[in-house]
Design brief:
Layout (H helix, E strand, L loop, with lengths): L1 H22 L2 H5 L13 E2 L3 E3 L5 E3 L6 E6 L5 E6 L10 E7 L5 E5 L8 E3 L4 E7 L6 E2 L1 E5 L10 H17 L15 H26 L5 E3 L5 E3 L2 H10 L11 H5 L6 H9 L10 E3 L2 E3 L5 H14 L5 H27 L5 H14 L2 H6 L6 H18 L5 H7 L4 H14 E2 L7 E2 H12 L14 H5 L1 H13 L4 H4 L1 H25 L23 H13 L3 E2 L6 E2 L18 H4 L23 H20 L11 H15 L19 H24 L9 H4 L1 H8 L4
Antiparallel strand pairs: 1-4, 2-3, 3-10, 4-9, 5-8, 5-11, 6-7, 6-9, 12-13, 14-15, 16-17, 18-19
Keywords: Membrane, Transferase, Transmembrane, Transmembrane helix
Protein name: PMT family glycosyltransferase
GO molecular function: transferase activity
């Protein structure tokens, strides 16, 4: 067995090296015989280009913006020689290349990526490179060189990615040993493996936070336009430290005097008259600026950081920390759910379930868009997952407590007294830990100060604690126990929830005159939010797009493009590549849940998972009605669909057992349908991961890498010359 594993590893290593050295370096091998000759140092230049004193090109007429050079056909590649780059030069330049007026190939390059400067232009004759940029653009091109020899490039990052793909495929293949090892959260080995996975992620998070802490304030303004200030949470923290509820930002007199500042026409006129600053996506109310985003992250993170360091915490650092916590708690939640519905599930199935949750929760999007928009979502994902994890673990395991209880003496007596005070039971229902249900309630109620939509997660508590709720009703009706003792747990839940909610409601009332007014309708954005309502005709299409908007593929990197949402009337829409089930198909298994009954030790529908499915569907409609179509809003419900899909996914994979979790090395006992299902699920998961990674490079999305980090985009783009 070891020899076979070693042989497979060696074959995989050789295949990776072969793909790297030959496949990804085909341009090098094809251009070994390139002449590298060029007719002249300078190129023939169209009348639509002008050379600046810095050596760059300025587009004067886009229809005549081209460079020409002779090519002898010894190489299918030409090289762009970048010029000196100034601040206003384009960092991504779109071109068309053709030989002797043949088929013009679209391409682009960045002067920040040396390898992207090689463009594919096969043929012999006159090579024309047309610049596809608007008039007035500064193009950092010195010259185009024909007959170029592409250098050899051994890329460690590319090798690491291929190795990761091979490792994932090896872990998820139907014959993998991981299908024969059951999950055991008490196992020292499995905990060590978990630490080996978590520690590098934690270190990467710490490194990312460190790089974000040194970032400059994100404030942008152009004459005649809005002011884009991305430090909303920093301003909230500063205002609270000063004892203010409004932000310490200046309000122009003309804006204060405007009859209806929420009207887009009024704001357009103010901007045309040079009035500034008018802050984009800030709430403006009674002559003051506010933020309509949840205040709790500012209190927990931004205020302490300001008090300790004297500096403003960047939203990017906060998002990284909160998303690390969210992914950690989501993973713990999945493990607890699996332990409840399908004990002894294999590690391979557990890893697939964890990946499904991370994909379904929209974690990739939130980690990518590390600005203030993502802060409340990341905070609420962390709080909701932690709260549910605590609730699901609130039931007392008396046998375990007896085994771990301290013996005699003062310490033992104190422990037993604390345990007795913490323990609550109604009727014959399982006993609960008051501490855990109180902390869970506190976490879920805290969503009121982050992303209030997540407060509806509390509805899952009805399903989780249904036996106790029935027991309370029976006890109160039969009067078999004192009322105060019977209602201790509900009182703990309510009191714990009121701890964050009451001050947050007071904060809302102090700002906008109502405890339930968060200021959403006062934001200055694409339309007048005081009068905006999503058109009734758009609600069903938006809800459908949230789930089913199809992926759109292209023939050039990154091969995935934005999918347009076709709506009958105007509504807010954020560019997105597809719906939840297009990006995470396994989440769609949740719709099978109502028809799945537990049998023969196999998982089936439960009250909790059915409630999660119903809540997810309700939130899809809620977001369609109140928010429009936004990629980030899928975080509201995506994780709930993934949670509801867990029993179906495990059942599809033949878990637990299927003749594979008995510690045996034999795989012949696994039915062929289970093996095929595992193979299909693994393939779908690999495709979903690929879509998630490629979506980071999608052109046209918010904060697109092609403009935000052109060096990274084009370094990867150049892998596929």
């Amino acid at each position: 067995m070891r020899r076979r594993t070693l042989c497979a590893a060696l074959i995989a290593i050789l295949a990776i090296l072969l793909i790297e050295c030959v496949g990804f370096n085909m341009p090098f091998w094809h251009t070994l015989g390139a002449s590298t000759d060029t007719v002249s140092y300078t190129n023939a230049m169209g009348s639509g280009l002008e050379r600046t004193k810095e050596g760059m090109l300025r587009v004067a007429d886009p229809t005549e913006a081209w460079l020409e050079v002779k090519t002898d056909g010894t190489s299918d590649y030409a090289r762009i020689d970048p010029s000196f780059v100034t601040g206003k030069a384009l960092t991504a330049v779109h071109l068309r290349a053709s030989v002797d007026h043949g088929i013009a190939r679209e391409t682009s390059f960045s002067p920040q990526s040396a390898r992207s400067c090689y463009i594919h232009a096969p043929g012999k004759g006159t090579l024309r490179v047309s610049v596809e940029e608007p008039k007035g653009s500064l193009i950092p091109i010195q010259a185009v060189r024909a007959n170029a020899k592409v250098p050899f490039d051994f890329n460690p990052a590319r090798v690491a990615i291929m190795a990761a793909i091979v490792l994932i495929a090896a872990c998820w293949r139907p014959g993998s040993r991981l299908w024969r090892i059951p999950l055991n959260t008490a196992s020292g080995r499995q905990r060590a493996v978990a630490w080996c996975i978590a520690v590098p992620i934690a270190l990467a998070t710490v490194y990312g936070i460190g790089t974000q802490l040194t970032s400059s304030p994100l404030v942008f303004h152009e004459a005649g336009g809005y002011t884009y200030d991305f430090d909303q949470y920093g301003h909230i923290a500063d205002a609270l430290l000063q004892g203010r509820t409004s932000l310490d930002l200046g309000v122009p007199d003309a804006l204060a005097a405007a009859g209806n500042p929420y009207s887009t026409a009024t704001r357009a006129k103010l901007l045309a008259d040079g009035v500034n600053p008018i802050y984009w996506d800030y709430a403006y109310y009674n002559g003051h600026w506010y933020s309509y985003f949840g205040v709790l992250p500012a209190v927990l993170l931004f205020m302490p950081y300001r008090m300790i360091t004297g500096h403003m915490l960047s939203s990017g650092a906060a998002v990284l920390l909160l998303m690390f916590l969210a992914m950690l708690f989501l993973a713990l939640l999945v493990l607890r759910v699996i332990d409840r519905i399908a004990p002894k599930t294999s590690l391979a199935a557990v890893s697939i379930a964890l990946t499904t949750m991370l994909l379904g929760s929209n974690a990739g999007y939130l980690l990518f868009r590390r600005n203030f928009y993502s802060v409340p979502f990341a905070a609420s994902l962390a709080l909701s997952a932690l709260g549910l994890w605590l609730w699901l673990g609130a039931a007392y395991d008396d046998g375990k407590h007896e085994r771990t209880s301290t013996g005699g003496g003062h310490l033992g007596r104190a422990w037993r007294a604390l345990r007795a005070a913490d323990r609550w039971q109604a009727g014959n229902a399982p006993a609960l830990s008051l501490t855990r249900i109180g902390l869970g309630s506190l976490c879920i109620a805290a969503n009121f100060g982050c992303r209030p939509t997540f407060c509806l997660t509390a509805l899952l508590g009805i399903a989780i604690f249904w036996p106790q709720l029935k027991a309370i009703a029976i006890t109160l009706r039969s009067r078999t126990a004192p009322v105060p003792a019977t209602l201790r747990a509900p009182a703990v839940v309510v009191i714990a929830a009121l701890i964050p909610v009451v001050p947050l409601m007071a904060y809302n009332a102090a700002r906008f005159g109502s405890p339930m007014n968060f200021g959403n309708e006062y934001q200055l954005t694409v339309t007048d939010m005081t009068a905006y309502r999503v058109a009734a005709a758009n609600i069903l299409p938006i809800a459908g797009d949230y789930l089913l908007l199809p992926l759109r593929f292209t023939d050039t990197f990154p091969w995935i493009a934005l999918s347009a949402a076709a709506l009958p009337e105007w509504s807010y829409t954020e560019p997105m590549i597809g719906g939840l089930f297009a990006m995470c198909p396994l989440a769609a298994l949740s719709f099978v849940l109502p028809f799945l009954r537990a049998r023969d030790g196999r998982p089936g529908r439960t009250r909790t998972t059915l409630t999660a499915l119903a809540l997810a569907m309700g939130l899809v409609v809620f977001d369609a009605v109140n928010a429009g179509l936004g990629w980030r809003y899928m975080a509201d419900f995506g994780w709930l669909f993934a949670l509801a899909a867990m029993p179906v996914l495990l059942r599809l994979l033949g878990e637990p057992g299927a003749g594979s979790c008995d510690g045996s090395r034999r795989t012949g006992a696994i039915p062929m349908r289970i093996r095929l299902a595992r193979l299909a699920v693994a393939a779908v998961m690999m495709c979903s991961i690929a879509v998630g990674v490629l979506s980071l490079f999608t052109i046209g999305r918010h904060d697109a890498l092609i403009s935000a980090a052109p060096n990274l985009f084009y370094n990867v783009f150049a892998w596929f010359l």
